[in-house]
Amino acid sequence: MVTSVNVPGAGELDAMMAAVDQLPFIVAVCEGPDLLLVACNAATRAVLPGRDILGRPIREVIADLAGQQYVDAYHEVYRTGEPVIGRQWRTHIDQPDGSALEMFATFTIVPWLDADGGRRGVIGAGFDVTELARTRLAAEAEADRLRRRYEQSRDVINALQRELLPAGLPVLPGLQVAASYLLADADTAAGGDWFDVVARPDGRVALVVGDVVGHGVTASGVMGQLRAVLQERLDAGAGIGEALAAADRFAGRVRAAYAATVCLALFDAATGELSYCTAGHPAPLLVPAGRDARYLPGTWGVPLGTGGTFPVRTERLAEGDLLLLYTDGILERPGSGRDGTLDSAVELAHVAADAAAGRALRDPETAAERVCTQTLELLVRTGGHADDITLLAAQRVPAVPELMIDLPAEAAALRGVRGRLAAWLAEVGASEHDVFALQHAVGELTTNAIEHGYGGDPRRDVVGIRAGLDRTGTVEVTVTDHGGWQAPQRQPARGRGLALTAQLVRSLRVEPGADGTVATVRHPLARPARLLVRFDEAAVVVPHGTEFTIAELPGGDEARVRLDGPVDAASAREVRRELLRRSRGGTVPMTVDLSGVSHLASAGVSALHQVAECHHDVEAPLVLVAATGSPAQRILGLVGLPSSTG
User: Fold this and answer.
1) CB within 10 Å: which end of the chain, N or C, has fewer?
2) What secondary structure letter does DSSP report for 487?
3) What is the dihedral of CA 225, 231, 234, 239, to 10 degrees?
4) pTM, whole model, 2 decimals?
5) What confidence tens digit (pLDDT) does each residue in 545-587 have?
């Protein structure tokens, strides 16, 4: 039997093309060595709005995706004839209004063959699986939260690894640092990789990345000891050779430390001078501002304990230059350099440069943070990783000038101070936790200066606030008034400000004098390092309101109220009045949701205490609700007001 098929006419062909145009997934057909885009459907045009698509090379059509490996995938399929499949790739696509659309895509790219079997072009087909991916990520995050306690008790080795590595990195003037540590696998024993950043009293910063041979408890324990030896010597002012010599002696005594490798650099952010030694370790990668990335020459130092020397080389970094230290796990990835054109070191240099310049994913992070996070994501997602990976990035940046504020002695000025202090701390690079602590501490001191220093007269003078970051990464803030000191009277609604401040910061000093009072707080800044089990772990930032509002919620037989925004000296009186009014003087049970409170000052704490006392006197329950980790929950835990996290 012979089966024949009728060749469609022009009308039928148009109908078929119209049907293809209605397919509910992305279709792109590229022709020739330049991969000119010759056909696409409506779904494709919807993803790339406002673009001149047809007849242009795919490299130009999706130029904004060049750092995200899509263009390379199309050309790899044309070159090799082998299909490429991607599953749930996170993608940022530039939009006509200048924003970036985040989309997750699952796709297949296959060769397009002509009738003779020759390679004519490439066909790509993909699905927008953004909702599926976000649902998956949300489910994984919830599963992680529920099993965290179980994992901590089960995986003692990984917990040990995290304890031995620095939880935070110093925030330093003229230098932005970031680090990521990715475990080889959630179920494998921890390894011997480590990193460290030591801010020295002489103003220089020591950057360390090292690798102990092996895995498990022994490697982790030795890693911790080596890190401690180097940290102690560097903190004491030792040079590179002296510090490595001390670690070398340790490796000569402890068998498990034999042949450990270290890259140690000393950097002066003020001058840009860099000294470094590669003791058996891969050489640092330099990503200059506006130029191609390059690897610094190795110094031919030997692994620890092997009886060699530790030569030192010098470089100079300009402002904007970024230095990346790493372990060989990022180079020894399965499938790295798979197309035969790029080896793993070249891949690392290209991806790190794209991340530093913001040409890859458009995450709102510093260049150092992007290099440490996006380099992992973009390289690991294509082939996985067989070993632990450690990345430590440092970028020379302009130092942020001191903050100087003079404000009138009136409570209404407090919120402006918080905003300006938060903006300055963000520019310095402070973490959300430190911004929270310093905003509260400075707010309390400023309130005291206004109310005590001037005897309650808001017209008399100004309050001066000065904040600076020293070379060891410690912020010092002084709050100065020029009034006569008045010791605060013992009142039920007062007296908690200085006590709260002392709990929030490292040190507090109040110095009354004939010309006024100077209150000084000192607090070291640190940004968390990313210690990851998976490359796609991420934090969620929830913004808080800036204006105070109070809203009544449905509550049946009880009063239910939600507070949003700052509860401070300017709003505390309204909070007390409104809560007592809505609970009829404390006689009706009340639930107060504080999850949306962005700032809870001591004046607000006093107001809540007074409301709680009224409810206690008439035995009507008062329940304070605050989300875990929220500003209100942190403060309530310090001042002894019980709260729930419902």
Assistant:
1) N
2) P
3) 40
4) 0.65
5) 457 888 888 766 678 888 988 888 778 888 888 888 888 888 8
